[in-house]
Write a structure and sequence with these properties.
Elements (H helix, E strand, L loop, with lengths): L5 E4 L3 H10 L3 E7 L3 E7 L7 E6 L15 E5 L2 H10 L19 E5 L5 E6 L11
Parallel strand pairs: 1-4, 5-7
Antiparallel strand pairs: 2-3, 3-4, 6-7
């Protein structure tokens, strides 16, 4: 088995593509349906891991509910990326910080045009493991 993709629904594909391409995603393909279409994106060297679905005629914002958390992406140069994003009008929710007092990496969050949160992790991130692993 392998992880294939995450799907999110977006209203303005052009704004969403600008946002995700500013994060480094590449547009990979499109699949048309009767009343919707999917645009597939991926990071360089990775699969088509992000699927953006556009429902024709949708004008109301999507209810993100209280279950959605975020997508996390590790980046090589967080400060440089934040400078490039700022030039496109994309600002972090708050400045980068060390989560939980962990000093080996910093994180910050940005939001896409539909309000989905994206965690940007500075450098390599090793998922914390239980002591018995």
């Amino acid at each position: 088995m392998r992880f294939v993709h995450t799907n999110i629904r977006v209203r303005d594909i052009d704004a969403s593509l600008r946002f995700y391409q500013a994060l480094g995603f590449e547009r990979r393909g499109r699949l048309q349906f009767e009343s919707a279409y999917n645009v597939y994106l991926g990071l360089p060297g990775d699969g088509d891991t992000l699927e953006l679905t556009v429902n024709d005629g949708r004008t109301e914002p999507y209810d993100l509910g209280d279950a959605y958390g975020h997508i996390a992406i590790s980046v090589e140069d967080l400060d440089g990326l934040l400078e490039r994003l700022a030039a496109d009008g994309i600002e972090p929710e708050k400045p980068p910080y060390h989560p939980g007092g962990r000093t080996e990496y910093r994180i910050c969050f940005v939001q896409d045009p539909d309000g989905y949160r994206i965690e940007l992790i500075d450098g390599d991130f090793a998922t914390p493991q239980d002591p018995d692993r």
